[in-house]
Amino acid sequence: MNPPPKKAPQWDIAEAQRIVQEKLGGIKADIYLFGSRADGTMGRYSDIDIGIDPHYPLPTSLLAEIREALEESQIIYHVDLVDLSQASETFRRRVLEKGVQWKG
Q1: 28-102 CATH fold
Q2: Per-domain boundaries in the chain
Q3: Nearest CA to 31 among 85, 90, 68, 70?
Q4: Of 37, 71, 40, nearest to 51 (Cα)?
Q5: What distance in Å separates the CA atoms of residue 65 and residue 47, rounded to the nearest whole number?
Q6: Measuring CA to CA, how many Å separate 86 from each of 13, 51, 83, 90?
Q7: Pfam families, alphabetically (predicted)?
Q8: Is the pTM of this model over 0.85?
């Protein structure tokens, strides 16, 4: 089996974005791509890091539902999903400053 290419295919990132936004439905939240895929320093097997910064607390089971949908998708990279409202303020601030906010 060939290793994944150095750069994540745009399809994988777009599919991750679609899944997260679809599962959030009408829940108001800002969504960020962060880490090496956002800043261009990814390696061959780098994961896709996604931060959700909800305007209100997320329903308890929602993150698990989103993670399951991502795992069952055709995305070839591991997707790390973080509820930024539950992260440390330092980590959250770093994602908001350096991450790429998804529109849509």
Answers
A1: Beta Polymerase; domain 2 (3.30.460)
A2: 28-102
A3: 85
A4: 37
A5: 19
A6: 23, 11, 6, 12
A7: Polbeta
A8: yes
